[in-house]
């Protein structure tokens, strides 16, 4: 039984990888033709100015590739509520990012959706996910697992609040992290792979297959996104990844470990919060630039050094999460 499931997981992974590898070159040419290029911030690092004009919105490719592969290779998934909820989160948050990216490339400025509008749309998507999960998943409840203690706690009305913040904070965290070539892509590959393991442990093989397709698609995307990047995922990709990672955490019952699995995303977000609070209250900056990956660049680290170091930290967070989850 499991050997067949394993073969399906591997097959879906391979097809997801191949589809992105085949489709991406044409997609890059198409986006260049449309002049959908990256618009760098005026206050950004001088070394990043050369990235201006690099095609963005690459997230469209790995989002659509993942969804198409999942449903074409696994036709029965059309009626699976777990799979459909993952698609809702992946596509829903991706659409929010697409709107933001589209406004940026059309206006040729770094200002897309106003933050209040973006957050409002993220909030609607988060609330909708919770309501859909509650309606379509029979055993969906407000219980969370506490790692190591082997305890389950009923959060009651606090659970939907937790889910809400998982989605809004998670999507924004990946978005903030997506500032260096391949950084968010690599961290998302690791985080998604961790959820593949948790899904297999829960014997929810549909979730494992879906997550593994995403891993394959992201590996294909990485070929074009690593330094020097030929394409960026844009908010389309980063918000979608944050949304689907939050969905994976909820559906695999790893709400608390989500914090550790996305440890680097959390660090990036905290660096921005600390920087803003410090500057507004004391008039001083804690970091040379936030998010923190830019701080290390300004210390003299190369972009690749920062990315690989952060990948390694993300990998360690993933390993610790798995250990805590199985103990």
How would you characterize the overall build of this protein?
- The two termini are 25 Å apart.
- The protein has a two-stranded antiparallel sheet.
- The protein has helices at 2-33, 59-73, 81-107, 115-136, 158-177, 183-201, 205-225, 234-251, 257-261, 263-282, 292-298, 303-326, and strands at residues 143-146, 151-154.
- β1 (143-146) and β2 (151-154) form a beta hairpin.
- It is built from 12 helices and 2 strands, in the order ααααββαααααααα.
- The protein is mainly alpha-helical and 327 residues long.
Structural class: mainly alpha
Q: Give the biggest beta sheet.
A: 2 strands, antiparallel
Q: What percentage of amino acids are in beta strands?
A: under 5%
Shape: globular
Strand order of the largest sheet: 1-2
Q: Termini distance?
A: 25 Å
Radius of gyration: 19 Å
Spans of at least 5 consecutive residues with low confidence: none
What count of helical segments does DSSP give? 12
Q: Residue-averaged pLDDT, rounded?
A: 93
Order of helices and strands: HHHHEEHHHHHHHH
| Percentage of residues assigned to helices | over 70%
Strand element count: 2
List the main descriptive attributes of the protein structure presented here.
single chain, 327 residues, mainly alpha, two-stranded antiparallel sheet, 2 strands, 70% helix, 2% strand
Topology:
Elements: H1 2-33, H2 59-73, H3 81-107, H4 115-136, E1 143-146, E2 151-154, H5 158-177, H6 183-201, H7 205-225, H8 234-251, H9 257-261, H10 263-282, H11 292-298, H12 303-326
Antiparallel strand pairs: 1-2
Helix pairs in contact: 1-2, 1-7, 2-3, 2-7, 2-8, 3-4, 3-8, 4-5, 5-8, 5-10, 6-7, 6-8, 6-12
């Amino acid at each position: 039984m499991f050997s067949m499931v394993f073969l399906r997981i591997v097959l879906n992974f391979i097809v997801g990888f191949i589809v992105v590898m085949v489709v991406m070159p044409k997609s890059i040419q198409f986006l260049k033709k449309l002049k959908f290029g990256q618009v760098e911030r005026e206050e950004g690092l001088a070394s990043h100015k050369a990235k201006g004009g690099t095609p963005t919105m690459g997230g469209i490719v790995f989002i659509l590739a993942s969804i198409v592969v999942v449903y074409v290779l696994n036709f029965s998934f059309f009626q699976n509520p777990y799979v459909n909820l993952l698609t809702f989160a992946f596509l829903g948050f991706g659409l929010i990012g697409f709107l933001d990216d589209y406004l940026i490339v059309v206006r040729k400025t770094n200002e897309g959706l106003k933050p209040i509008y973006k957050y409002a749309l993220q909030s609607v998507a988060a609330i909708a996910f919770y309501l859909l999960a509650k309606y379509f998943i029979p055993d969906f409840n407000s219980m969370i697992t506490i790692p190591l203690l082997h305890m389950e706690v009923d959060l009651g009305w606090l659970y939907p609040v937790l889910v809400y913040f998982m989605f809004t904070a998670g999507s924004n965290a990946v978005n903030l992290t997506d500032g260096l070539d391949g950084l968010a892509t690599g961290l998302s590959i690791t985080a998604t792979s961790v959820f593949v393991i948790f899904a297999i442990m829960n014997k929810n093989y549909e979730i494992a297959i879906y997550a593994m397709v995403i891993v394959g698609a992201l590996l294909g995307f990485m070929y074009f996104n690593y330094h020097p990047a030929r394409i960026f995922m844009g908010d389309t990709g980063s918000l979608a990844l944050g949304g689907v990672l939050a969905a994976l955490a909820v559906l695999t019952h790893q709400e608390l470990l989500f914090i550790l699995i996305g440890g680097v995303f959390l660090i990036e977000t905290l660096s921005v919060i600390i920087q803003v609070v410090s500057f507004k209250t004391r008039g001083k900056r804690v970091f040379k630039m936030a998010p923190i990956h830019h701080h290390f660049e300004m210390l003299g680290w190369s972009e690749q050094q920062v990315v690989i170091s952060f990948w390694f930290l993300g990998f360690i967070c993933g390993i610790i999460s798995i250990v805590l989850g199985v103990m």
